[in-house]
């Protein structure tokens, strides 16, 4: 069985049992006609796949939630026209629910919470309307010219957590100008690249299950795991999505959730730097990648260095961004620097999961001071402490692969000097300063554009000293 992220559409006919009881043959004939002339062709036009039908209902998979919502709205608008002149008691009216999430693929069928939530949203939908999850609404918000009403958090059957629900009524859909639907769908089609990722799982030597993903084609590029990732939702993240989209355009791009993060095991016995290196080893072995470019970001840089020293024959290029050879705890020189790190650790232990955002705001101000509210992250303390203990200075001189080091000049979290020292310790490494102050670069900032330009040029080289 495999996992992947997908948009799931669930639909059924309102009052189907009543319609069948009143006129069985007429209902079946009308439903088949709607399917043949409207529904099936509309799904195909929006690149969907009908997974299964159940009498009056169907389950459809889309690679893009933009396509799923566009398809649903188009069908509901067309059904209003097709029902014109038909007595109310004989009209075929659909309810449609859409969710985006992780699904399990077994043959031609799909399962999982991603599917179950879509089915529950369909039952909450008004006749002739469309209900979508919060995750789906976040993805279409800037891509389609239609505004779903926020219906709040709702408890749904067999789902342990409340689900954020957004809806369009039949009247809302009817009021949307045809030109707006057409133009927004066309814009989305021309600007949105499909990122269908394969999600797999592997096990480390100490029994921890890690989740890793592949997307794109080309020479393999592996990104070392670090905290604050979730491979199921990274392509929705305002922090990571643009970077990952760019990296997967020209490469078979591999990434994984480090232990304690995302889809990987959260409750793990051992969170240490040595285990982080072992985890990278386990992932690339499980993925069957013989030789690849290796990208380390932030604390992933030290892990990448250690792996490159262990396996120089497998790393064609080494790219390090915002990294350090010595962790925050060991590089603190003054009492004030030590106290600052310990204060951050205490805040994370006590307040990270609380609704009050004050704790996370302090963290965000160091990692991404230019972030807006949507871009504020969150994670746990054990990883922070483990990365504070990093010390790979003695390994730098042993790196034998071509290396490119980049660092934002005014990085608010990891000092620029740490990046420069990292490059200076690696024989033949090239150092590129980036203009910016965000430790995790944001879409649209000049530093990210320069990073991508330098990375592409470096990876296009022949990988020889």
Terminal residue distance: 43 Å
The secondary-structure class comes to alpha/beta
Helix content: 25-40%
Q: Describe the main β-sheet briefly.
A: 8 strands, mixed
Q: What overall form do the CA principal axes indicate?
A: elongated
Radius of gyration using CA atoms only: 25 Å
Based on DSSP secondary structure assignment, what is the total number of beta strands? 16
**Tally of alpha and pi helices:** 16
Low-confidence stretches: 188-194, 370-379
The overall pLDDT average reads: 83
Work out the strand percent: 15-25%
Short summary of the structure?
Helices cover 39% and strands 22% of the residues.
How does this structure look, described?
With 465 residues, the chain is an alpha/beta fold. It has 16 helices and 16 strands. The strands form 2 sheets. Strands 1, 2, 3, 4, 5, 6, 7 and 8 form an 8-stranded mixed beta sheet that branches. An 8-stranded mixed beta sheet has the order 9-10-12-11-13-14-15-16, with helices on both faces. β13, α10 and β14 form a beta-alpha-beta unit. Residues 188-194 and 370-379 have low confidence and may be disordered.
């Amino acid at each position: 069985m495999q996992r992947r992220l997908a948009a799931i559409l669930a639909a059924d006919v309102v009052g189907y049992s009543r319609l069948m009881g009143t006129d069985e043959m007429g209902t079946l004939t009308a439903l088949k006609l709607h399917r043949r002339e409207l529904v099936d062709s509309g799904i195909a036009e929006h690149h969907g796949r009908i997974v299964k039908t159940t009498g009056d209902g169907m389950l459809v998979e889309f690679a893009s939630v933009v396509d799923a919502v566009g398809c649903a709205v188009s069908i509901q608008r067309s059904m209003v026209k097709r029902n014109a002149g038909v007595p109310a008691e004989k009209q075929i009216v659909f309810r449609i629910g859409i969710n985006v999430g992780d699904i399990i693929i077994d043959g031609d069928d799909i399962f999982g919470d991603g599917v179950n939530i879509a089915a529950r949203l369909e039952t909450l939908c008004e006749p002739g309307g469309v209900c979508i999850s919060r995750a789906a609404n976040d993805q279409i918000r800037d891509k389609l010219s239609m505004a779903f009403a926020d219906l709040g958090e709702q408890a749904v059957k067999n789902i342990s957590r409340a689900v954020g629900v957004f809806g369009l009524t039949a009247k809302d859909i009817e009021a949307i100008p045809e030109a707006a639907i057409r133009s927004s769908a066309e814009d989305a089609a021309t600007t949105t690249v499909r990122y269908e990722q394969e999600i797999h799982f592997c096990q480390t030597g100490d029994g921890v299950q890690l989740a890793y993903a592949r997307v794109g084609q080309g020479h393999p590029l592996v990104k070392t795991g670090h905290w604050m990732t979730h491979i199921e939702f990274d392509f929705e993240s305002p922090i990571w999505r643009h970077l990952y989209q760019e990296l997967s355009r020209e490469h078979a791009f591999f990434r994984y959730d480090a232990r304690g993060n995302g889809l990987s095991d959260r409750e793990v016995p051992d969170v240490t730097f040595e285990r982080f290196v072992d985890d990278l080893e386990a992932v690339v072995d499980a993925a069957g990648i013989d030789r690849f470019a290796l990208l380390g970001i932030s604390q992933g840089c030290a892990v990448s260095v250690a792996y490159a020293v262990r396996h120089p024959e497998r790393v064609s290029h080494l790219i390090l961004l915002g990294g350090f050879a010595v962790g925050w705890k060991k590089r603190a020189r003054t009492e004030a620097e030590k106290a600052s790190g310990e204060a951050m650790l205490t805040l994370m232990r006590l307040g990270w999961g609380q609704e009050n955002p004050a704790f996370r705001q302090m963290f965000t101000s160091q990692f991404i001071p230019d972030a807006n509210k949507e871009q504020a992250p969150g994670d746990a303390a054990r990883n922070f402490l483990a990365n504070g203990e990093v010390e790979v200075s003695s390994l730098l001189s042993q790196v034998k692969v071509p290396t490119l080091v980049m660092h934002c000049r005014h990085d608010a979290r990891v000092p620029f000097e740490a990046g420069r020292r990292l490059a200076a310790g690696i024989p033949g490494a090239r150092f590129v300063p980036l203009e910016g102050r965000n430790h995790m670069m944001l879409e649209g900032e000049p530093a990210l554009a320069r990073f991508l330009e330098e990375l592409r040029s470096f990876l296009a080289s022949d990988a020889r000293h």
